[in-house]
Design a protein that fits this description.
The complex is a heterodimer of chains A (1164) and B (323). Chain A is built from 34 helices and 33 strands. With 1164 residues, chain A is α+β, with helices and mostly antiparallel strands. In chain A, 27% of the residues are buried. Helices cover 28% and strands 28% of the residues of chain B. With 323 residues, chain B is an alpha+beta fold. In chain B, the strands form five sheets. Chain B has a four-stranded mixed sheet, with helices on one face. Chain B has a four-stranded mixed sheet with strand order 7-8-10-9, covered by helices on one side. Chain B has a four-stranded mixed sheet with strand order 11-15-17-16, with helices on one face. Chain B is globular and about 50 Å long. Chain B has helices at 16-26, 46-58, 95-105, 129-141, 224-241, 250-259, 274-287; strands spanning 8-11, 30-33, 59-60, 63-66, 73-76, 79-80, 82-88, 111-119, 150-155, 164-170, 180-181, 187-195, 199-206, 211-217, 264-269, 292-295, 306-311. Classes of the chains: A alpha+beta (1164), B alpha+beta (323). At the A-B interface, helix 19, helix 20, helix 21, helix 24 and helix 25 of A face helix 1, helix 3, helix 5, strand 15 and helix 7 of B.
Chain lengths: 1164, 323
């Protein structure tokens, strides 16, 4: 059916409507563009004020303390993305989905870290965290980003909160929440409510607005592609703020692990010997320095034997191959997961397995995996090693035309050494790396040859070129051809020379003491006297009587000559690579020892017989000031010598500013240095010395001028571009200072070769290295499990030491029990996890640190324990037990390190009691407080107190009962008073340190630390031994008997009457009343009888009434009982019904679970 | 499982002070043997024993074992405690001998140090108290150790009877600053302190704050003019040697550079002294840090100045208390 065309709308071209439209369009366009200022303009002044303040406040909250990011910009290590969550929540599925998203590969069996290239400048290492608390701790310390998975259909689980608390105490990395199993919630309203509730809880745990992702169901064993794509986008835009601990420690997440111990040794020791293992991975954090010890959590402190830089197994695309904006598809396939089965290669702990498909034909494969390539490469070999060595051509330099001929021998290079490898950096790597190297080499071979060459290669080539030019002079002849290769290799090691004249100086191997030949150009050989000659000369001169004659010239010349010859020295080599004594290096002290012997600069020819020092010689003191020889200073009498340093003073002329200072005193060493060296080498190549001098000075002037101009231009640019840059605030200034320093860091060692660079600054983060660890417990190798992460954390010098660590600690409010002093606690502090015995304390009025028996509620207290030191301000968390069977929340406390020391000052109160045995006026003799006079002597002058509050002081020991003493009180005390002495007793934490060696166990979750005594008794079924003295007995308190007060007669007599005790004699005779009998009158008798009758009647009445009441009560009780029975029956019925329903429900659920999501969750 | 870190091992009595300092700072135990083992009077001298005592008091938990013959010592360093310490220096060396190592340690102590030293204040072997006050402390200030840094000269004393007294006050720092000092500038002023009967010390200061110092000790019978001439000429010699740092303070500056944050520090020095060379070697052993040493201006054949650059170890004062 034809589609019917409608008549198109024709807007009016003229008329009022057209005019109006035109007008509005013209106006509107203007308005539409840009920011509509009116839209957000405040309507009133007050509102404007408030708005302004709010903006200012918001700006301030955005500011953070500027932190230096130690991660290099050019080759950053891959970002570690950890996938954490309770079992069955979908971690593996998410990891598979993400890896597929980045590499288009589906991994079946993921183990250990997986590194992928995620962008042009970014790589990601994914690692899945299992449900073990130890793994969670280790992962929490290294992860840059955590994908925290939560089962949406169930809600939060204890592990999630535990993990969040671990993160909090070790510096919070970024966290993205991922809700899964949302497809199990069928009702839309419930789903919405669940999402909202979970989000609210998640936000309170992390921060308001934390990102929470929702993943719906699983499709083809993966999450839906669009959702994963969104998640990956979030991961890629994530910015990471450096964490303080990681910014001060180097660390590595091992993605490969090999045992290097000789098999024979293992066999002989039946597998029990300490192993040598290598771990591989990207360095992160700060630079790893040689000699730094490392801690592998779960294993212990280990020594690093050697570190080697390996080729990056998962390299970032370089600029040449990736000109485009996006990552090319080919690079997307890169994946590095040695512990998994990626590319058909599986690295087990002691073997490499290569999986190949059923039929395996060469050339028939489109995209062979890594392992398949290995096998293919093995097939490619068509000549023996020896043949290849014979055929191989080794050129010394990139530009050499004549290759070296090498007789086959043990020292020859490996067979497939290609041209690329020849000048490459890999020389002594083991087989595995070589294979990898070759593989990457093959990949590179697809591109151009130049591409394979790194910058360093270029650098070396340049140097070699320069050398070649220099070698056309006679010097080349003087050297034997045999010496060449080794010599050259040595030189590649450490060399900082900038021009070839520098190189000439110390390559001279011949020990001849007299002359050295130095090239300044192609054909001119300058004869320069060595140090010894100078010394000889000067000593000769001293013999001349009128030595003053040409002293100045000589001194000048000598100074300059020594200066020149010294300048040519390679100080790095002299200081670090030779064993010559410092004095020998400086060329002193030889004149008196042996003038014929030159300074020996190489290790090889420095063998001297240790001469016995004559005993009577004045020994050289360890002194900073050097003895001054007044004769040496005589040269300053000469005006010319004085003039020679005039330029060093501000008053001197600047024309002869030879010291790198221009007129304004501005520093320009950097630019001048580079330009100057360039110019200098040019000059020395081209002409003779005098010509060069002229040219140099010309160059120098030009360079100085250029530098000055550049500086001015920079200043102008700065002021022009940012007029308010001058008044930058503190924050900007700090940031700029950091940026400047980082610029300097980058620039300073840029041209140094990697080996020397490692010597100076260590191995930088981002490099893929192989670390050889020695004396590793055999169990680590035996019980290796790739699903448990191996973290290699570098230790700072302070952290290797042990001492008393004082921390501020707070019991976690979710932890059920209080913590008790001297109960073992497991700390996760720094890289380490260890069990130790803390003592809790509180600051008592800043006077003393008083021990606490238990941690206080809702309050911080101090804890002191013995263990490895950690820097102050390091966070930690503590656990009572790490096992999974622990009920409740496992994080028992969190806190921060305050102090490390070698002694503690915790005290507990000690009360000594005694009783008086003789009391004078204000003096009393006290016993039972001490046992000997010596003890009393120790406490002389101590303050004591009675229970009633009378204060006193210990005076002196008494001879008679041992330990009794005389004390003075402010008032008379009673014999019944107890006297006590309040003292403080210092206590030390127990020196107990037990690292959690979970990685050494076959069942890594079953680590068992020291148990409490009660726990041991309970588990062993032992009874608590009872101390007979500790048994409680009924307290017997005999009634106090007070003696009657007796006042002596004499005293009584003297007392006034009022104070006299009124003591009367006891009555002997019967009293008046006793003597008389009482007889009732008849009326009285009657009344009495009547009263008695009335009382009897009343009694009877009451008894009858009570009986009746009892009867009534019994009837009521019966009734109530009946009702109770009825009620109970009803209740029982109700319960029965409820249980029946619940049983049905659970049955239904179990069925649903089996049908729906597999039984993984229920299993665990 | 408390393993002890690797022991530094040295031989001979030379450079005892800086080796002890490196051991205490790096926390590695140090064993020094063959101390004057071939001497007629073998073993440690009285001032060396006194130095060990002083270090023991300035630190907490330091264990020093001296062999029976006194020719070998083992020092297991504790933490640097600081606080208030008084020490009687023996009359064989001046207080400078004891101050120099303490100055290197004091910024990293737990508490600010207030050290009173009694003894000889000026002699011909060690830096005099004037030099320490006017030159050493400003060099320490380059690294951010400044507030409350002071050396009070209470009494002067010279050999043979001593009797001087100085008080050294040093604040503590969390971390020393990274140094970038490559411009020696030009000498803008020269100042000096002459204390009759003791010495004349001269100090040349450049536009950028670089310092050079020289000192001449007065001797009986020598006219003051000659002492002055000697001092002035030694100062000129010092200035000619170049560098942005006084020659006697090379080791101090290099040590602080190594202890700086994990950044590149640069400093321009004249030719290293023998002490400096040994110090660099020992420092590599203790901290694993080597320097890059390059000529300051390669184009100038007359300059002996060198640029020492290193990558700091990021030494953080772990002894500091947080509260």
């Amino acid at each position: 059916m034809d589609s019917q065309t409608h008549k198109a709308h024709r807007p009016a071209q003229s008329g009022a409507k057209a005019e109006k439209k035109k007008e509005s369009k013209a106006k509107g366009k203007e308005k539409q563009h840009g920011f509509n200022e009116k839209a957000f303009a405040p309507k009133s002044g007050r509102r404007a004020d408030r708005q302004g303040r709010r903006t200012a406040e918001r700006d301030q909250t955005r500011l953070h303390v500027p932190l230096v990011d130690r991660t290099p910009d050019d080759q950053p290590p891959p970002v570690i993305v950890a996938i954490v969550g309770p079992p069955g929540v979908g971690k593996t599925t998410l990891m598979k989905s993400l890896i597929r998203r980045y590499t288009k590969q589906t991994l079946n069996h993921i183990q250990g870290p997986v590194t992928v290239v995620s962008g042009k400048k970014k790589r990601i290492t994914f690692i899945e965290c299992n449900n073990d608390l130890n793994s969670m701790i280790d992962i929490g310390k290294i992860a840059d980003l955590v994908l925290l998975m939560i089962d949406g259909s169930y809600g939060f689980e204890m592990e999630t909160f535990e993990f969040l608390n671990i993160l909090q105490s070790h510096g919070f990395p970024k966290v993205i929440g991922v809700l899964t199993h949302l497809d199990l919630i069928k009702k839309a309203a419930t789903l919405k409510a669940t999402k909202k509730a979970l989000k609210k809880r998640f936000w309170t745990e992390i921060y308001q607005g934390a990102k929470l992702f929702y993943l719906s169901g699983v499709l083809n064993g993966r999450y839906p592609d669009t959702e994963i794509l969104n998640l990956s986008r979030f991961i890629s835009v994530m910015k990471f703020r450096p964490l303080v601990f990681r910014n001060s420690h180097p660390y590595m997440l091992a993605d490969r692990f090999e045992d290097l111990t000789p098999r024979e040794q293992v066999r002989q020791s039946k597998g029990k010997c300490d192993r040598t293992v290598t771990v591989y991975g990207y360095l992160r954090g700060t630079n790893y320095r040689l000699g730094m010890r490392v801690h592998v959590p779960g294993v212990g402190d280990l020594d690093v034997n050697s570190v080697q830089i390996l080729g990056d197994p998962c390299p970032l695309p370089d600029a040449q191959s990736e000109k485009r904006r996006k990552l090319s598809e080919k690079k997307k396939l890169l994946i590095h997961a040695p512990m998994s089965d990626v590319g058909g290669v599986m690295y087990d702990k002691d073997a490499v397995y290569i999986n190949v498909p059923g039929n395996f034909t060469k050339g028939g494969m489109e995209n062979p995996g890594e392992g398949e390539k290995m096998v293919l490469d093995l097939q490619d070999v068509n000549s023996t090693l020896e043949d290849q060595v014979a055929k191989s051509q080794i050129r010394l330099f990139g530009s050499s035309s004549q290759p070296l001929s090498v007789e086959a021998g043990p020292s020859t290079l490996p067979s497939d050494q290609s041209e690329d490898d020849e000048d490459g950096s890999s020389e002594d790597e083991d087989e595995d790396e070589e294979d990898e190297e070759n593989l990457s080499g093959n990949e590179d071979a697809l591109g151009s040859d130049n591409e394979a060459m790194s910058d360093e290669d270029f650098g070396e080539d340049d140097e070699a070129d320069v050398d070649n030019h220099g070698r056309s002079a006679p010097r080349t002849v003087r050297r034997s051809i045999h010496g060449l290769p080794s010599q050259d290799r040595k030189r590649g090691d450490v060399e900082y020379a900038d021009s070839d004249s520098d190189l000439g100086g110390e390559d001279d191997d011949d020990p001849g003491p007299s002359r050295r030949f130095v090239h300044f150009g192609d054909d001119k050989v300058v004869d320069i006297p060595s140090d010894d000659d100078v010394d000889e000369d000067s000593s000769e001169n001293e013999n001349v009587p009128q030595w003053k004659a040409n002293l100045s010239e000589k001194a000048q010349a000598a100074f300059q000559d020594t200066a020149r010859s010294r300048k040519r020295r390679d100080w790095v080599k002299l200081i670090y690579n030779s064993s010559a004594a410092p004095e020998e290096i400086l060329g002193k002290g030889q004149t008196e020892e042996d003038p014929s012997q030159g300074p020996s600069m190489d290790d090889d020819d420095f063998f001297t017989i240790a001469s016995k020092a004559p005993a009577n010689v004045e020994e050289t003191l360890d002194q900073t000031k050097e003895p001054v020889n007044p004769d040496d200073l005589k040269e300053w009498e000469d005006e010319e010598v004085l003039d020679s340093i005039r330029n060093l003073f501000i008053t001197g002329s600047s024309s002869q500013a030879a010291e790198g200072v221009d007129e304004n005193g501005e520093p320009y060493e950097d630019m001048e240095g580079e330009a100057g060296s360039q110019a200098g080498s040019d000059a020395s190549e081209g002409e003779g010395e005098d010509v060069a001098d002229g040219k140099r000075s010309l160059n120098k002037d030009a360079a100085a001028l250029a530098a000055k101009k550049a500086e001015l231009k920079r200043k102008f640019d700065e002021q022009y571009d940012e007029p308010d840059a001058a008044k930058a605030d503190f924050y900007t200034e700090a940031k700029e200072a950091i940026a400047r320093q980082q610029q300097l860091n980058r620039a300073e060692f840029e041209n140094v070769d990697p080996e020397a660079r490692a010597l100076i600054e260590g191995y930088r983060p981002g490099t893929y290295v192989r670390m050889e660890l020695v004396n590793v417990p055999a169990e680590m190798v035996e019980n290796f499990d790739p699903s448990f992460p191996i973290v290699v954390g570098g230790l700072l010098p302070a952290e290797e030491r042990f001492g008393y660590v004082q921390v501020r600690i707070k019991r976690h409010r979710w932890f059920a029990k209080t913590l008790k002093t001297n109960d073992p606690l497991i700390f996760s502090l720094g890289w380490r996890r260890f069990q130790t015995v803390p003592i809790y304390s509180l600051d008592d009025h800043s006077i003393r640190m008083r021990m606490l028996k238990y941690t206080p509620e809702h309050m911080h207290c101090y804890a002191t324990f013995y263990g490895p030191a950690a820097l102050p301000n390091t966070g930690f968390c503590a656990f009572n037990a790490l096992g999974r069977d622990t009920p409740g929340f496992r994080v028992s406390a969190t806190g921060v390190v305050l102090d490390i020391d070698r002694s503690t000052r915790i005290v507990k109160k000690l009360k000594l009691t005694g009783v008086p045995f003789k009391i004078f006026k204000n003096t009393a003799f006290i016993k039972d407080m001490f046992t000997s006079a010596l003890e009393v002597a120790k406490f002389e002058g101590a303050n004591i107190r009675t229970v009633s509050g009378i204060r006193g002081q210990i005076k002196k020991a008494l001879p008679k009962p041992d330990g009794a003493f005389r004390a003075a009180f402010e008032d008379k005390i009673l014999m019944s008073d107890i006297v006590f002495l309040r003292a403080w007793y210092a206590i030390q934490p127990r020196k107990f340190y037990n690292p959690v060696t979970s990685l050494l166990l076959s069942d890594k979750e079953k680590w068992q630390g020291m148990r409490l005594t009660g726990q041991v008794r309970r588990e062993e079924g032992l009874k608590t031994p009872t101390n007979i003295n500790s048994i409680y007995k009924p307290i017997e308190r005999p009634a106090r008997r007070f003696n009657p007060l007796k006042v002596p007669k004499k005293l009584q007599a003297a007392l006034p009457y009022a104070s006299k005790p009124k003591i009367m004699k006891p009555q002997h005779r019967a009293t008046y009343m006793q003597k008389r009998a009482v007889v009732l009158e008849p009326e009285e008798k009657k009344a009495l009888a009547l009263l008695q009758q009335v009382r009897a009647l009343r009694k009877d009445q009451v008894a009858r009434r009570r009986e009746k009441q009892e009867e009534r009560k019994a009837a009521h009780r019966k009734k109530v009982e009946k009702e109770e029975v009825k009620k109970n029956e009803k209740e029982k019925e109700k319960r029965k019904e409820y249980m029946r329903l619940a049983g049905m429900k659970s049955k239904r659920e179990a069925e649903a679970a089996e049908g729906g999501r597999g039984s993984k969750r229920r299993k665990t | 499982m408390a393993q002890t870190p690797a022991v530094l091992h040295f031989s001979g009595h030379h450079y005892l002070r800086h080796r002890l300092v490196l051991s205490i700072l790096s926390g590695k135990p140090v064993r020094i043997d063959k101390i004057r083992s071939d001497d007629q009077n073998p073993g440690l001298r009285d001032y060396e024993v006194s130095l060990l005592r002083l270090l023991e008091r300035v630190t907490n938990g330091t264990v020093i074992e001296i062999s029976v013959t006194g020719t070998a010592i083992l020092l297991k360093p504790g933490i640097i405690a600081g606080g208030s310490v008084t020490h009687e220096c023996p009359l064989s060396r001046s207080v400078g001998y004891f101050l120099e190592p303490v100055i290197m340690l004091a910024p990293f102590a737990k508490k600010p140090l207030s050290l009173t030293l009694k003894g000889i204040t000026t002699d011909e072997h060690d830096l005099s108290v004037d030099i320490i006050r006017t030159v050493t402390l400003p060099h320490l200030q380059l690294f951010g150790v400044s507030d409350g840094l002071e050396l009070r000269i209470k009494k002067r004393g010279s050999a043979p009877l001593g009797g001087g007294e100085v008080q050294f006050l040093c604040p503590i720092v969390k971390q020393v600053k990274t140094l970038d000092f490559v411009d020696p500038g030009r000498i803008k002023r020269i100042r000096g302190i002459s204390s009759p009967g003791y010495a004349l010390s001269l100090l040349a200061e450049s536009t950028t704050g670089a310092m050079h110092s020289a000192e001449a000790i007065s001797k009986p019978g020598v006219p003051p003019e000659e002492i002055a001439l000697l001092a002035a000429r030694s100062l000129l010699a010092e200035i000619r040697r170049g560098g942005a740092v006084d020659r006697h303070h090379q080791s101090l500056v290099l040590l602080m550079m190594v202890l700086g944050s994990e950044d590149v520090g640069r400093c321009r020095l004249g030719e290293p002294t023998a002490r400096t060379i040994q110090f660099l070697r020992d420092m590599k052993q203790a901290f694993g840090t080597a320097f890059k040493i390059a000529p300051a201006d390669p184009s100038d054949p007359e300059s002996t100045d060198l640029i020492f650059s290193c990558y700091g170890v990021g030494y953080i004062n772990a002894n500091r208390t947080l509260s």
